[in-house]
Amino acid sequence: MRFVLAIVAFVAAACMIALGIAQRTVFLEPASVSLSTTVAGNGPYTVIDSDALTAHEGAQTLTVRGSGDTFMAYGRTADMEAWLGDLSYTRLSYDEDTKELSSELVRGQSEFTNDASQPSDPQTGAEAATPNPNPRGSDLWLDEWTSENSLSNTINAPEGISVLLATDGTAPAPKNVRISWPLDNSTPWAGPLIVGGAILLLIGLVLYLWALIHMRRSRGPRRNVPKGPRMPKLPKAPKPKMIKINEITGGQRKAISGRSSRLAVVPVLVISGLVLSGCSASFWPDLSETPSATATPTPELTDTPEGLDELPPPAVTVPQLERIVRKIAVVANEADTSMNAELLPARFTGPALLERQKNYQIRAGYPEQAAPSPIPASPMEVILPQQNATWPRTVVTVILNEDDPTIAPMTLVLKQNSPRENYQVEYAITLAADATFPEVAPASIGAPPVAPDTKFLTLAPDQLATAYGDVILKDTASEYYDLFDIAGDSFVPQVGVAATEARRAELPPTTNLEVSNAPGPGETVALGTIDSGAIVAVNLNQMESATPNDGGTVEFKASPAKSLSGVEKTAKGVTSTRSDQLLFYVPAAGSDEKIRLLGFAHSLIAASEIP
């Protein structure tokens, strides 16, 4: 019976091990599914549509091959179509009938050329067609990659995301395109079968040895046999000579020991190999309560909450804004360090651009002047994109200084005028130390734009600069004084009536000081908050004139104004202008709250002799 059990164990072990190995070999499903195509024509742009990317579940691995520098980017489909505009491009989509990729030529209206160096027509004098724009570096992309000839990347694109393929906008886009999706080809019972078979094999060996031992012990007569007649004794056979162990030759000894070693080692190696072959996670069932998190190569978009699908999408996504701010921080740091104002227009405009341009000019003649407040790249404490599917688009973000927590957070107001233009900093405002930022909508929803002349706030945004300027000039005598939280305002004490009188006292009695202010050229930006209020950024210019009152001259010591104007003494006087970038919270109409100053930037932008 023991031999029967051993044989059954051996057979069962062989079947289990064979089945486990077969699951990882002959029965193993493919690890991925893919679609491939070759794009016809020599178009400079190819768009892989969202339905092609989501034809199968899972992350998409895109492999493209072309000639030259291959470019790949992915972004929201609507943004990509807006960037392409009236350009011609090839669209790759998924054909449900054939289960393959299909291509379609989308013809544009503009006369663009594939040759950026094409000269004008010498006969007619007509200018050459405008070269196609280069898609590299656009702020509309969630991410982008470049490589020589071929490129392969994995993304996790949900619906509403497309991929753009190109070179530089002039040469043909890559032609060979392959999209693959991972498949779950795990075999959770392969490991248990192999290991269980190995264990059963050991049990069979134990049963077999037990049966052998039992059989040897049970040899011999089982009952008394009656005695018969005595047989004559036979002559004794000569005893064989005993061979001692030390008399065995080396070859014989190795052969004997080798056979015994192999007999012991072979089963161990076989069983160990089978056990180790099932160590992979795909060999075993997942018994965890929650699936382990898998890192995605690229961030996914956050879906719009239920009931808000009718709202316009936010101007940017969080990953998109992170890339934009990093680029801005690089440009700002390089320009501030080298005082190269030519780098600024790529990423700065309006009051923020003018502040830095004039700061570099002042520092060239007055090194004691402080550099502009640095623009950190991360982390972003507040992300408030405008709800807008068209252009121009606006985003407000508050960025902390990761390197130095003692530096006040920086608030950036970014603006993108058109799909092919990048975001520029319209306002760069240092947040006040005691400022309390109002509660705003999450970045996945965004904030509605507020009309400059709205009546639903305690003060219309387009009146805010004038009203605040009046408070600066008149203090409590201003008709707008009670609208503002002056007790918590840290800027009015620096530029208000008391500060002006202190400056007058420092000047000689023979010099008159006149101050005034007016709204600056910066655009008023207003985005709604959750409590129906608004965050408003405005620009206020403060003018100051120092003139002699005795017919003499006014002499200036080394100062930012002297560096900017180049005037050392004058009989006519000197006028200077300072630009204020101001960020307010304006409560809803009927609220008991007052308008709060959240942050400000105060900088000299002009100084000259009075004509």
From TrEMBL:
Q: Where is the signal peptide?
A: none
Q: Which residues form the DUF8094 domain?
A: 314-608
PROSITE patterns the record matches = PROKAR_LIPOPROTEIN
Membrane spanning stretches? 189-213, 263-284
Extent of Polar residues compositional bias: 110-123
Spell out the residue ranges making up region: Disordered: 110-139, 288-314
Name this protein carries in UniProt: DUF8094 domain-containing protein
- Give the species: Microterricola gilva
